[in-house]
Design goal:
By secondary structure, this protein is α/β, with parallel strands linked by helices. It is built from 14 helices and 12 strands. Helix content is 35%, strand content 16%. α8 crosses α14 and α11 runs parallel beside α12.
Length: 431
């Protein structure tokens, strides 16, 4: 294992969330861990459907963001508010006073999953506006929302503006792997000395009513006997379980703050661990169909480990399968391709059935969960997995208890339709 400490190491010093919860959004690392530790799920709604809802109270949000006049804040979409709230929680966790300029030179990076609902909800009012009767105030509101929404989930524009950042600021889009890739970008910026602090956020928004329509369309499109991707509304998602039938979606945002070691040491910051390496790869195919061999993800993982660790030194893998049979089968091929015979006893778990398949935040959620497992010496189980499927060539840690374990090195995987794959190597930072 080659993990020599350097002043330019990328350390995670803060995490914050705006994710589904029980009665209120999951916001703090403590609340996040309390749910993940035993695989609690927040997806079942009062009407018996399954969706990760994150309700927002405008007055509460406005109270937390007095810097933004209410007349502007009311024009922000839910996805922007999710991102802002997750950022506030991460800053509080890292003990960074953004109001005093602590993020004035930080990189502010956001992940995009190109959710159609965000586009529709902001652009449709422009198309439907009657220019003969709309008032100037209403017209400004419609146009302002469109400017923010036209760039879809570019929450980094609102985040960077709030904290007054003059550093690098952009949005990256490669589906469900987006925030995972951004962790690598942030770590490379820090290693190169471009920045000392980087904020990485994934945020996404889905409208539940449209998901119902989407699920019905999907059902009509299914043909053949190959594993299919599937949207579930009326039953829970069950990653790695023999009853796996598809995925439940979820809204929300998750943020990690990364700092150089020298910057963190100067302010005596508490750290969760290190982002050691990240690699992105893709299967060589000319379409959006899944390559169930997972060749791209396995290649990304091997490259990610190179120069840092051998597969035998990895203690845990945070997976990316969703409860969808196709992705489960693909991951069942990926893990032994990386770890060989050792795969059979290697713990591989996911947290998607806790908060739902949220798209852009998934890379941050997986990394945050892994760092907290390192801190607590406990491998969290795969939520909603009770009877592991035959495709599991690894140990999905079923049930709700999890298990005690020391984790020094972990691999976090993310991939998406189109076969883009990201692998991130995460390490503990114990003295």
């Amino acid at each position: 294992m080659t993990t020599t400490k350097s002043p330019r190491d990328a350390l995670v010093t803060g995490m914050g969330f705006c994710l589904p919860g029980r009665g209120a959004p999951t916001a703090t690392p403590g609340q996040f861990w309390a749910a993940v530790e035993h695989g609690e799920s927040f997806l079942e709604q009062d009407d018996g459907t399954y969706f990760g809802s994150v309700p927002l109270d405008f007055d509460t949000v406005a109270d937390r963001l007095p810097e933004i006049p209410p007349r502007f804040l009311e024009k922000y979409s839910d996805i922007h508010l999710y991102g802002l709230l997750a950022l506030l929680e991460a800053c509080a966790d890292a003990d960074l006073d953004w109001r005093a300029g602590a993020l004035s030179e930080a990189a502010v990076l956001a992940a995009r999953n190109a959710t159609a609902d965000t586009i529709v909800d902001t652009y449709l009012p422009v198309l439907l506006a009657d220019t003969r009767t709309i008032s100037p105030r209403e017209a400004r509101a419609v146009l302002f929302r469109n400017v923010l929404g036209a760039v879809m989930s570019d929450v980094e524009t609102t985040q960077a503006g709030l904290v007054g950042s003059t550093g690098p600021s952009y949005t990256l889009s490669c589906g469900c792997a987006s925030s995972s890739v951004l962790l690598g970008n942030a770590a490379r910026m820090i290693a190169a000395g471009e920045v000392d602090v980087a904020v990485v956020t994934g945020a996404d928004y889905w409208r539940e009513s449209r998901l119902r329509q989407y699920a019905e369309l999907e059902e009509r499109s299914v043909a053949g006997t190959e594993p299919q991707t599937a949207t579930l509304v009326h039953q829970p998602m069950r990653p790695y379980d023999e009853r796996a039938a598809g995925l439940n979606y979820g809204n929300g945002a998750a943020t990690l703050i990364l700092e150089s070691r020298e910057h963190a040491d100067r302010r005596n910051a508490r750290t969760y661990g290190r982002v050691l390496s990240q690699v992105t790869a893709r299967n060589a195919q000319p379409n959006l169909a899944l390559d169930l061999t997972g060749a791209g993800a396995a290649r990304a993982a091997r490259s990610c480990l190179e120069g840092f660790a051998t597969p035998d030194e990895i203690d845990y893998v945070n997976g990316a399968a969703t409860g969808d049979r196709a992705f489960n089968a693909m991951e069942g091929n990926i893990v032994p391709a990386i770890f060989g015979e050792r795969a059979a006893t290697l713990p591989v778990t996911v947290q998607e059935a806790v908060f739902g398949h949220s798209g852009a935040p998934l890379g941050v959620i997986g990394a945050a969960a892994t760092f907290l497992m390192m801190r607590h010496g406990h491998i969290a189980p795969t939520a909603n997995c009770e009877k592991p499927a035959d495709v599991c060539t690894f140990d999905p840690v079923p049930g709700t208890r999890g298990r005690a374990a020391r984790i020094d090195l972990a691999l976090s995987l993310n991939y998406t339709i189109g076969s883009v794959a990201s692998a991130v190597l995460l390490g503990a930072d114990d003295d």
